[in-house]
C-alpha cells in the first residue's frame, strides 16, 4: 500500500512502478530440503544484498541477492539469488525451574552493519539471543613448494645448498570464497517469558529485547550484564492491562524507542528523560481505556510497529485488520488507517474459536516511507 506520509526521496523507478502502483512478481521459489521445518522469520540486510530466514528447526539460512544477465525476451535485468550459508543457530532447551521446554524455533533475525569482509546478525528463539559473524575468506593455493604435493608422487627433492630452497608463495582467490560462521556472543537468562521483540539501536552498540512484561537493553560487547528499562513484573498479573507485543528503535536517535501493547496502544519512550521508562514520554491509543469486548481488543492488538525511515515523528503499526500511521505531533488519533482483509470481519467468531485470530502479521517500510 502507498502512504504519502514522510516522503523524503524520489519515487522508485519505472522498472518497479506502473501507474503509481508497485509491480509485484514472483522472482523464484526457494528450494528447501524436504522435511525441514516451516519458515518462521525472514529479514533483509540494509543494503538488500542478503536475505536471512529462520525455521522452526533452529536453522538460519542466508541467500545472496544479485542481478541476472540481460533477458533476451523482456530486455530487463531481474534479481537472482544463490545460497550463501546455512548454520544451526539454536537447539532445543529445557527450563528446569519452570519445567518448560524451550523450542529451537527462530523468532527474530536482525542484521548489523557490515564490517570489512564480515556480516553480523542477531538471531533469537524464545529465550536466548545470539550474535553471529559470517566472514568471507578467499580460497588459498600455494606454489613454489620445496616438496611435491601430488598424490602418489615419489619424486625426491635433494637440497644441497641455500639456493635449492624455495620460498612458498600463497595465492588468494577473492572471486572464490568460503564463508566461516562464528558464534561471537550469547545473551541469555534475562527473560522469564517468550521474547516478543528485538530491535537494534541507532548507535549500533546496543539493542533492545522485549517480553510481555519487560524490556531489556544490552550492549553487544557485554553478555553478563543487562539493564531493564521497563519492568512490569507484578505479584498479580491480573493488574497488568497492557502486555508488550513488540518494540522498535528509532533509526536516527539512540535514545528513542517505542513499544506496542495488546490493547492497541503505542508508547514512545526517551531514555534521556529517565533511565527507567515505566512512564512513557508519549502515548497513542486505539481503544478506550474501558473497552471490554474481547474481539475488539484482539483485532486491535499491535503485532508489529516501525519508525519511519525519514522521520522519528512517524510510526507505522500493524494489527489484525489494519495498518495505521501515527504522528507524534498529533497523538490523539492515527492520521491514516489502511484496512486489511476486511472480508474476515464477519468471521471473527470462527477465527477466535480456531485460534487463528492470534496470528501475528509483520510490517516493512520502504526507504522513503512511501510504501508500507
UniProtKB/TrEMBL annotation:
GO terms for cellular component: protein phosphatase type 2A complex. Keywords: Repeat, WD repeat. InterPro entries: PP2A_PR55, WD40/YVTN_repeat-like_dom_sf, WD40_repeat_dom_sf. It comes from the Eukaryota. GO terms for molecular function: protein phosphatase regulator activity. This is Serine/threonine-protein phosphatase 2A 55 kDa regulatory subunit B delta isoform isoform 2. It comes from Schistosoma japonicum. The lineage of its organism: Eukaryota, Metazoa, Spiralia, Lophotrochozoa, Platyhelminthes.
